[in-house]
Prior knowledge:
Blueprint: H1 3-36, E1 38-39, H2 55-64, H3 73-84, H4 105-111, H5 126-145, E2 152-153, H6 154-164, H7 166-172, H8 179-194, H9 214-222, E3 228-229, E4 240-241, E5 250-252, H10 254-265, H11 276-283, E6 287-288, E7 298-303, E8 306-315, E9 318-321, E10 330-333, E11 340-344
Parallel strand pairs: 1-2, 3-5
Antiparallel strand pairs: 4-5, 6-11, 7-8, 7-11, 8-9, 9-10
Helix pairs in contact: 2-5, 3-8, 5-6, 6-7, 6-8, 9-10
Amino acid sequence: MSSGNKMTGIVLGLVVLLVSTLLMVLGGGQEEQRRTSLTGHVLGATQLDETKVPPWAVEPLRRAASRCTEITAPILAAQIETESAWNPDAYNEGSQATGLSQFIPTTWAHYGIDGDGDGSADARNPVDAILTQAAYMCSLIEFVKGRDGLTGEITDLALAAYNAGPGNVQKYGGIPPFQETTNYVTKIRDLAANKYSKRKRNPGVSLENLTGRAREVIRHASEQIGLDYAWGGGTLDGPGLGFGIDEGVSGFDCSSLVRFAYYQGSDHAITLPRVTDAQYAATQSQPVSVDALQPGDLLFWGVLGNIHHVALYIGDGKMIEAPQSGQKILAAEIRTGGDYFGATRVFGGPLDNAATV
């Protein structure tokens, strides 16, 4: 081959390689967008407060909650309260929905389980109903995960599908805009987190000397102590499933923990950005020196343009943070050495005056 032909071949080869790489990046970007449009969500804590449910429901809920990660015992309990108010004989004349979990005949015929081994799958049997409810919810989780074009929290979408049907979730690309369905999802989320979940209250953190608006922010953060760090996990409403190295781990990463605490602690009035760099950018107009720190201030580590870690100052030289993969959320002494970058204040700044950011 002549040198000219060799050069032409090299150029063509480089062009083919460049195009192939570009297609891979674009394709990968589309797949990443599709993957991250669905976020893992564990509503509230995963441990059931067994004092809040009828005694006969405790064991079936324990068994049912082991079917899939996203469907916890508090979620199932919240659904049952919403569907039937814990009445095993509940019946809807119009839809023929029956039992604790209000299954219509066609759905029960497909999913009904003989949970207590008595030889019959009966929608009015509490054990059968609860185990079938969990099985059906887990099947809806798989439905949601397997569909392109859906956006939202995985568990929220499954709850919406339970109420409005999987077809409507797919049709609208998320939670359908039906008042009944949006109310349904919201009610279950609130019941699961605030009534049926059992969690330690403020372990290792005293709120006695805290006053003012930061108290509620710190309270919500402190109630997450002991949960797992989950990169990419955590939502405005509670722990969520992580990505990458923490795929399948339920918890928070550093920025989602701070974001959750401020959103819940401000009664949904303050929504910090999702990632650490953006949280610093949104609050940098109110820098705070170490000797002027107040409870509720944000502590940052990294360099300008690459702020990689954030924690919540809680007073007395301590902070709450989600450290890194493999560790738990904890309260610790503040660190101002190494790549500590600085602190900012949220209250009194632009974030404090906006409903959402």
